[in-house]
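Form 7-S
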Amino acid sequence: MRTARETSSSRESSRRTQLRSLERASVDAQDEGFDLIALGRRVRHLRKQAGMTLDALAEALGTAPSQLSLLENGRREPKLSQLQQLAKALEVSFDDLFGAEPPSKRAALEIELEKTQRGPLYAALNLPSVRISSRLPMDVLESLVALQGELRRRLEEQAATPEEARRANTELREEMRAKNNYYPEIEAAAQELLDAVDHREGPLSHHVAADIAAHLGFSLRFVKNLPESTRSVTDQKNRIIYLTQGTSRQWDARSVLLQALGHQVLGHTEPDDYSEFLRQRVYTNYFAASLLMPQATTVRFLKESKARKEIAIEDLRDAFAVSYESAAHRFTNLATEHLGITCHFQKVHESGILHKAYENDGVNFPADHSGAIEGQTICRQWTSRQVFEVDDKFRSFHQYTDTTVGTFWCTARTEAHSSGLYSLSIGVPFEHVKWFRGSDTTSRSSSRCPDDPTCCRQPPAALAARWEGQAWPAARANSHLLAAMPQGAFPGVDTTEVYEFLERHSRQD
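Output:
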């Protein structure tokens, strides 16, 4: 038999073990943010499970019922000694107090509802809070939690931050690289429409573009008062596509129309988040390009040019009456799949900032920690930067660039835009340069970017020695980089303005 001393010692050891357990639980809870709401709901559940009233438990703790009520409602943080008293009064272990899982489904719902109502999203809506008590029916509790969860999901997904937008861009670029930027299902959809309007050869005229719209059951309206935040507006109820007659817009009306039709043909629905919005935009751009530069005729044109070792993006532009940028994008769609040529594309602002890019040839674009390349500075030695210094803007500029991952040949041009001058370039590894016009260029540079900052990101030592600490430039702040992406299913579009536009024109029609 155990002696009284042994029993007392055992009890003391157990008490010390429990106290250490409580201290560890308390420390862990503090490290994890100490969820007062979850703790309070658990205390209330355990109290009711023990058949104790609020007054009875408060008396056992030596506190006022109002103070215990604050604890159970997650509005008061208990002291370590009070947690020990709670465990003793409720005859539970400390683990029961700090359990990871809510004690019941109802408790889990109550915790979720309480957290939501105390959060910033709910506060921004200026809605009255629902009093959570045992008299709140279970089905009402479930509905409120589900509704608020869906509201939170929509608000969070439609208010993309620049970081989220960059992540979406990175994911989409990885998808494009994996597919060699070639989407056969979109090519097939475009060819089906071309066959339907009997378009076989040559540039796609405005007339044929209108025939495609008519074949799909849409009529066209050219207006001067299109909402400023839009390039086109589609009235899906009355099957009307509104386009602008203005001369200030810097895009091809055919392309805008075909992109609008692409949403219909590809079965797009209102995007749930920025990632889906971006993906839909890329797919509709691809669809429009597949109509403006049909796969069969474009591939034949490129193969003939390759046979002559005369591939040139400007020839593709002229043959199909599209912009240089459109021709460059279309080349990346077909080059690897049909010509066996890997390549990369860049659109770079005159400031050196990379705006758009694609690659499947291993070129080492500068990137941030997340893999995003948009907004990064391109090396001064690359063709896409060197072209800004070339006097002859009529012809394309060609250059070889030796990099840390190999030698690349690039062809580039500059085009003006309302936001400044941009270079558009297509590049290929040295092994493929023989197929291109301009492969005989003597222009050559060497780049150690982005691996070596002394290549061009740091000033030369002699220059730095003279001016370091003596210059104070006034930076042109890009405040838009600090702001969240515009809200809404279609970022940047004023939905009210669009609805008012459609309302006016529906009455006129």
